[in-house]
Design goal:
The chain has helices at residues 9-14, 30-49, 51-72, 74-100. It is mainly α. The chain crosses the membrane at residues 75-96.
């Protein structure tokens, strides 16, 4: 284990990985417990507050789902693409017409 390895000694021994936002059980030292709780709280704030990262992960999940859908049902995927293109084209047409008036 190197200093850049995010896994702790407890994870390596027990074989179960705790999320970064969890406080490991079995800490008896109050100072170590407080540090672990602070570390977990800061990690939770980072996870919840990092919107660009959350958006990127959600978009990656959406891309994977869309590709899976396209592989399983290419005809429906082509229809969905055509429907979205027609909807966007219609929206652009309505906006352009409203601006022109």
């Amino acid at each position: 284990m190197t200093s850049s390895d995010p896994r702790s000694n407890q994870e390596l021994v027990s074989g179960t990985a705790l999320p970064r936002t969890a406080v490991p059980p079995g800490i008896v030292d109050p100072v170590a417990s407080a540090r672990a709780e602070l570390k977990a709280a800061l990690a939770a704030i980072e996870v919840r507050g990092n919107f660009p990262r959350r958006i990127e992960k959600a978009s990656q999940r959406g891309i994977v789902r869309a590709r899976t859908f396209a592989r399983r049902n290419p005809v429906a995927a082509a229809g969905a693409v055509a429907g979205v293109a027609a909807a966007v084209g219609g929206l652009v047409w309505v906006i352009a017409r409203a601006v022109a008036r």
